[in-house]
Amino acid sequence: MEICFAPMEGVTTAIYRRLHRQFFPGVDRYYIPFFSPTPDRLFTPRQLGELLAEHNRGVPVVPQILTRSGGDFLWAARGLKEMGYEEVNLNLGCPSGTVFAKGKGAGLLLHPDRVDALLEEIFRQTPLKVSVKTRLGVRDPGELSRLLEIYNRYPLSELIVHARTRTEMYRPGVHQEAFALALEQSRAPVCCNGDLFSLEDCRKLEARFPTARGLMLGRGLAANPALARQLRGGGPPEKEELLAFHTALREAYREEYGPQNGMRRMKELWRYMACLFEGGDRLAGKIARTTDCVQFDFLVEQAFQERALLPSPQGFR
Ligand SMILES: Cc1cc2nc3c(=O)[nH]c(=O)nc-3n(C[C@H](O)[C@H](O)[C@H](O)COP(=O)(O)O)c2cc1C
């Protein structure tokens, strides 16, 4: 089964993806966190920093677009084609209040007829393969049936199902039975996403849904960067390689964003990675409260020196 790294805005940056691939190979595809095409139809320097081939060398990536406009999607898809991409993903799941209010992401799921019209327009002219990452609906997981009917009208290259509704945001627990429905009814190959935090979680899902094309892992992989390797039969993370990965990332962020903003990026990651260490909850709290770079580096050094890694990390929960 394929293993995909979920897009995580603020966490799986181009720098992160490149170093993750270098230190912990095993992921088949990395999805780039979404970008929204701007009304002036120009890629911003920030977007180009994520999208251009030179920032993704050697890393298999799929870009993701967040929009409610077919015209904007097609404009962006043409630009992505020029950059060398063959596939693009449409975000139909982002639950954030502002995105939802604008009728994008999960906001589109409120109006299945608009999803239909958007896909109609996209598929009439898309220069790229198009996959969709969807939530189950806005309030009721049962909304998925209607959405599947619509998705099946178009030749999606893949349907990634994040098995939560918008209202559920990121609350623990997903509706795994929705994967069964999607696998039974979707014409497009299905990739399962949501709460796959440990080796056992993934193995159980693979056994339950052997016809899924892939698993998409987000917070679990951010927490344990070796999880994809373990799924391929490799070993759990070891302290030296984790430290080497961390050091390379810290340096690259410092160089790109400066010490303070670089530290902020690292702190986002520690929300997940702390769970690899004994006493991870307290460690996560201490790191989250730090606003001083020297203190941050000290806490990290201390964690690597004094805390054992958990023998079978259960991942972020
Ligand atoms: C900090 C953060 C940022 C995210 N950014 C995106 C994004 O840019 N695009 C997207 O489709 N999903 C995004 N997601 C959702 C994840 O891709 C994924 O669907 C979700 O976390 C469930 O998977 P998990 O339980 O393996 O983490 C984000 C989630 C988090 C926690």
What features would you describe in this structure?
The protein contains 13 helices and 9 strands. By secondary structure, it is of the alpha/beta class. The chain has 2 domains: 2-231, TIM Barrel, CATH 3.20.20; 239-306. Strands 3-2-1-9-8-7-6-5-4 form a 9-stranded parallel β-sheet. Helix 1 (14-23) runs antiparallel to helix 11, helix 3 packs parallel to helix 5 and helix 5 (112-125) packs parallel to helix 6 (144-151). The model has no long low-confidence stretch (mean pLDDT 96). It binds flavin mononucleotide. Flavin mononucleotide (FMN) is lined by residues 6-11, 33-34, 64, 91, 93-94, 133, 162, 170, 193-196, 217-220. The site of flavin mononucleotide (FMN) has 23 residues, from helix 9.
Topology (SSEs and partners):
Elements: E1 2-5, H1 14-23, E2 29-31, H2 45-51, E3 61-62, E4 64-65, H3 70-82, E5 87-92, H4 97-101, H5 112-125, E6 129-134, H6 144-151, E7 159-162, H7 177-185, E8 190-193, H8 199-208, E9 214-217, H9 219-223, H10 227-231, H11 239-273, H12 280-289, H13 293-306
Parallel strand pairs: 1-2, 1-9, 2-3, 4-5, 5-6, 6-7, 7-8, 8-9
Helix pairs in contact: 1-11, 3-5, 5-6, 6-7, 11-12
> What is the second-level CATH architecture of the largest domain?
Alpha-Beta Barrel
Shape: globular
Query: What is the fold named in CATH at topology level of the largest domain?
Result: TIM Barrel
Average per-residue pLDDT, rounded, comes to 96
Oligomer class: single chain
* Chemical compounds bound to the protein: flavin mononucleotide
By CATH reckoning, the class of the largest domain would read Alpha Beta
Figure out the total of helices. Answer: 13
Order of helices and strands: EHEHEEHEHHEHEHEHEHHHHH
Distance between the termini: 24 Å
CATH superfamily of the largest domain: Aldolase class I
Strand order in the largest sheet: 3-2-1-9-8-7-6-5-4
As a whole number of angstroms, the C-alpha radius of gyration is 19 Å
Classify the beta-strand content into a percent band.
5-15%
What portion of residues is helical? 40-55%
- Backbone structural class: alpha/beta
Uncertain segments of ≥5 residues (pLDDT<50)?
none
| DSSP strand tally | 9
